[in-house]
Amino acid sequence: MRIGVFICHCGTNISGVVDVVKLAESISHYPGVVISKENKYMCSDPGQNLIKSAVKEYNLDRIVVASCTPKLHENTFRACLEDLGLNPYMLEIANIREQCSWVHSDNPELATKKAEDLIKMAIARVRFAKELTCSKVTIERRALVIGGGVAGIQSALDIANAGYHVTLVERTPSIGGRMAQLDKTFPTLDCSACILTPKMVEANRHHLIKILTYSEVEEVSGFVGSFEVTIRMKSRSVEMKKCTGCGMCQSKCPVKVDSEFDEGLSKRRAIYMPFPQAVPNIPVIDRANCRYFLEKKCGVCKKVCPSDAIDYDQEDTILKEKFGSITIATGFDLFDHSAYGEYGYGKLKNVITSIQYERLVNSSGPTGGHIIRPSDGKEAKKVAFISCVGSRDNKMGKPYCSKVCCMYTAKHALLLKEHVPDAEAYIFYIDIRAAGKNYEEFVYRVQENYRVKYIRGRVSKIFEEGDNLIVRGFDTLSGESIEMEFDLVVLAVGVIPRKDSDSFARMLNISLDANHFVGELHPKLAPVEKNTPGIFLSGSCQYPRDIPESVAMAGAAAVKSLSLFAKEFLTSEPMISEVNTSICTGCLNCKNICPYRAINEEEIKDLDGKIRIVAKVNETICRGCGTCVASCPSQCINLKGVSNEQILAAIEAL
Amino acid sequence: MDNNNQQTWEPKIYAFLCNWCSYEGADLAGGGRRIYPANVRIIRVPCSGRIDPVFILKSFERGADGVLVSGCHPGDCHYTEGNYFARRKFVLVKKLLEYVGIEPERFQARWISASEAIKFVETVKEMTENIRKLGPNTKLVKNIKEEITCQ
Ligand SMILES: Cc1cc2nc3c(=O)[nH]c(=O)nc-3n(C[C@H](O)[C@H](O)[C@H](O)COP(=O)(O)OP(=O)(O)OC[C@H]3O[C@@H](n4cnc5c(N)ncnc54)[C@H](O)[C@@H]3O)c2cc1C
Ligand code: SF4
Ligand code: SF4
Question: How far apart are CA A348 and CA A351, in angstroms?
């Protein structure tokens, strides 16, 4: 072992306090140290040349540089070693400026003593330095996007427009998501379908985007750069290549069931397209309700289809594909208000949800845009809108704000006034949250120009009296109790995580946050990344998001995929952990603790032929935090570059 | 350092600092030329989660009079959750040290961010003063010379 120590004056930044010359002398006698030199500026070309010639002259195999913080010049000196043909990790820096001369200028003697200690510790550490290398992994330059709402569509378009293949997997028969159901959108009131449909069509036409609707991801393995994904394309019972989307089948199908798209306000057939602008424009047979599948009767659709596209024997297709990145854009579900006894357990006919209201006011919706009561079809003249139903309510396990409800409720009241000018709108609210571009102004307009009445206070009871509904509550601003009669009540039901989020997370091996939304890597610095590298977040699967935010996130998530695809290789970090399998007991403590899920189990064969489970670190995933190392009870996992031996040697150096 | 000579005795404190927050905090103290006692010897680790309890025990065994461990604030860990694992371990270590008879002032776990130079300086000052009052640590210390003569 031949160590060289190079001590920097840093002009007078260091040498003005620390006796650098004396230090260089005393360190040169330290065991293992072949040569110790000082220089005015080690990082300068003359300084680096001094190191280079010393390494050659004294045949050094590792060096210590005592200088400023490693954050500044660690890479400079690593490059210097590399130039010499040495491994760049045969280096330790002793930080004798930021952590010594600059902070102990009051006591040069102690500062010099401390600098000596710091150098000794660095020498001890460099003794155990090992040559480190990075391994290279190839990247599958194709992206998987799960969820075809506005966020997923936007991510897919952004990635594809940059020239990479995208597969967009959507569970329902059409892409579009929640936005396809909306009428007009706050705060600009542009029609939702008018701005969404062109995007759906663009995605469908894009030669680099493959849309798989009525499909789900079933299994994911592998890691960033090469995820192996199994996708189930459920059988539509309709041959996509033959179908022209004429719609003859659904007009003749005798079965009627509640339409999911219209939130139960209309009926659809057993063979159906969820909505007229569906992409793809091809129906599916809902086998659970189809008479052919239930009773082997009917078969009308097959008879009437002019293109002979109906195939009752079609089977699910299983696809296995490789992707470099995965973007999650699975969106949200809505709170089921039947949990609230005071709002009638979901049993009062004229108490509807906000999303049902969106369908009611929509001119292509079930009522042609007439705001009528479900009970008797009478036009609603006096409507109560109640906010925070299943939001900001600890009792319901929903402590968070759903963020979009204040705004869409204001929009709903406005739309009521536009559709029924002589109608009265009351909004019961707790706070008005209108933080967004032009949002506050929008709410103000609703209050001032449309004369919508805002009543601050929670509603304590809704009940039927005659044909109408009585809303009882307390106005916290006037301090009076209220009891009012309404034709219709609209509940602003909260945004909740997808109901299957737990099993979805398990399938992808990712974590959820406390509210079961898909948690991000870092709330401030990495809001669209997961702790599993190569998995990104788009839209409201992460937290309630409105459309502008969902679209912005979608672009941000796409950029993460693109910057991955722009790389020639993925290189693993050199300083990552490694398992000594000969002593690993297979307790897998490390596997459970790793924040990146970089550790998996592996079967190995012992010398005596016995099969044994041990831990295995995935080099591309490990980030080198070392948490696993400090948690291994048998001390068989170590962090390269910051090994137990190196740290213990530093401790023992003094 | 000679721990037995009261005249020249200076507390020796090891500080294990995570690379991303606390080590940067200490660097920032340097950048701001904030003077603090020269008693602390910093050991850089990637994450507070990397700090093995063995390092802490070893430090005391080698004659440290105090040990400081520090990482990013909860929720701010560069590696997302290493500091949570660290926190759990430090609670146990603290109990163990107290059980062995080491005064609680000698082992400190603090969350210090990259911008908290002042917190770093104050922590070092406070620890140094407290330990100076307590005198040299005698618990857990292994006298290496003695051991060699015994063998
Ligand atoms: C009543 C109401 C009114 C609103 N009004 C407005 C408004 O006026 N302005 C505004 O900006 N925002 C409004 N919003 C918010 C808006 O709906 C959302 O911002 C937007 O829909 C979020 O899009 P997304 O793509 O993230 O999620 P979604 O629209 O929920 O899309 C997610 C998609 O993923 C699919 N999916 C889910 N799980 C899987 C899976 N495991 N595999 C495959 N596919 C899956 C779903 O079927 C769905 O198609 C409103 C919301 C509500 C509830
Ligand atoms: S009738 Fe045939 S072609 Fe027309 S939409 Fe139905 S399945 Fe497609
Ligand atoms: S060093 Fe950190 S990232 Fe790497 S395997 Fe261990 S715990 Fe996981």
Answer: 6
